[in-house]
Amino acid sequence: MDKIKVAVNGAAGKMGRHVISAIAGCRDLELTGAVDLVEVGVDAGKLAGREPLGVTVTANLAELLQQGETDVLVDFTTPMAIMKNIELALSQRVTPVVGTTGISEKDLDRIQSWVSRYKTGAIIAPNFALGAILMMKLAQVCARFFPQVEIIELHHNGKIDAPSGTAIKTAQLIAAARREQPPRPESLEKIPGTRGGNLEGIQIHSVRLPGLIAHQQVIFGGEGQTLTIKQDSLSRLSFMPGVLEAIRRAPTVKELVYGMENLLEL
Ligand code: NAP
Fold first, then answer.
1. How many whole angstroms separate alpha carbon 168 and alpha carbon 151?
2. What is the pTM of this model?
3. Which ligand 1 atom is at minimum distance from the Cα of 81?
C-alpha cells in the first residue's frame, strides 16, 4: 500500500511538533514537508524530539506544494494565516486537514467555493480530541431537554482567538438541537462583558491562563437541577488520534467536512 504523503504547516509550533512525532510513528504515513516561519533549515525530527527524519523546515508553503510530493497538508498555524494556506493547498489539489481555529461561517463559505472549484476535499476540525467530540454530541442530546445553557471554555494564555472554535461549534449544535429558545434572563452588567459573549442566544465565557491546555464546560440549567458536561485536554497528545484519523480519511474525502463528528460514526 502506498504511504500517504503528509506535510505539516506550523511545524515548529506546540501542535506541529506533536503532529510530526505522531506521523513519524506511523508506517502508513510519510512526512514529506515541514513549514514554519521559524526554525527554518532545522530537521523536523529534531524539532519533534526524535531522531532526524531527513525533512528540513522550509518557510515557503507554495513552493513545497508545487513540488507535487504532498497528498495531505496538516495545518496548525494561526487564524491570520489559515485562509491563505487552505486556498494554496486546494489550488494544488492537496487535501488540507485543518486544526487551526478562528475560522468563521463566512470563511467556511469561501472554503466551500474553493473545494468545488478545485474538486478537492478539505477536513476542518475545531477540536480533534475524541472527548471533546463526544462532549459536543452529548450537548446536542441534552439541549433537547434543557434549553437553558451556558458554555465556559478555558485555554492556555497563548491562544489568540476567543471564543474557541469548539465553543462556537458546541453553541451552534445546541442552537440547532433545542426545541425552543428560552428568554434571556435580565442582567445589568456593572462591568461590560461580564456575562460573556452571545451566540444564537447562548452565553459563552472564555478564560485564558497559563497552566491550562484546552478545557470546556457546558452547563445546562433546569428547575432545581443543573447538568454539566466537562472535558479536559490535559496534554496535546489528546489531539493526535483524531489528527491521524483525519489524515488517513483525507485521500477519500471529496467534499468539505467540518467537525470530526462527521467523519466518525457516532
Ligand atoms: P503555536 O505554538 O503558536 O504554533 C503555531 C506555529 O505556526 C508557530 O510556530 C508559528 O510561528 C507558525 N506560523 C504562524 N504563521 C504561519 C504561517 N503563515 N506559515 C507557517 N507557519 C506559521 O500554536 P499551537 O498551540 O500549536 O496552535 C496552533 C493552532 O491550532 C491554533 O489556532 C490553536 O487554536 C489550534 N489548535 C487546534 C486544536 C484542534 O484540536 N483543532 C488543538 C490545539 C490547538 P510564529 O511563532 O513565528 O508565529
1. 9
2. 0.90
3. 18
pLDDT at 199 over 90: yes
Tally of residues, the chain? 266
Atom of ligand 1 minimally distant from the CA of 17: 26
* Judgement on whether residues 152 and 250 belong to the same structural domain of the protein: no
State which residues form the domain around 23.
4-124+237-263
| Shared-domain flag, residues 154 and 93 | no
Residues 227 and 246 in one domain: no
Ligand 1 neighbours, Cβ below 6 Å, are 9-10, 12-16, 35-38, 76-78, 81, 99-101, 125-128, 159, 214, 239
Q: Are residues 50 and 62 in the same domain?
A: yes
Q: How confident is the model at residue 181 (pLDDT cuts 50, 70, 90)?
A: confident
Q: Are 4 and 248 in contact (CB under 8 A)?
A: yes
Rounded CA-CA distance 225/133 in Å is 25
Residue with CA at minimum distance from ligand 1 atom 43: 15
pLDDT digits (tens, 9 = 90+) for 217-257: 999 999 999 999 999 999 999 999 999 999 999 999 999 99
* Residue owning the nearest CA to atom 14 of ligand 1: 77
First to last CA, the chain: 28
